[in-house]
Design goal:
The protein has 84 residues and is mostly helical. It has one domain (2-83). The protein is built from 4 helices and no strands. It is elongated, with a radius of gyration of 17 Å.
Amino acid sequence: MINEIFPGRIRGRAVAVCTAANWGSAFLVSQFFLTLVGAIGSSASFWLFAAFSSIGWVWVHVYVPETKGKSLEQIQEIWKGLRK
């Protein structure tokens, strides 16, 4: 999906930044998971991750517009309209 939401003129750099953020997040989770389990327990750790996932889902549901079946030009117009 990342490739589809950026216009061609910035797509390469934007996808690189998004991929780096994704890998960085995965690195942080893997580095702090055992420390978190030791501090608050395994079930609380998973509940914490579930809470963050739920918050992320709500944010995406509220703020990210539906782009299914739309062309890149139509998606760009949606984003221009949201910035005003």
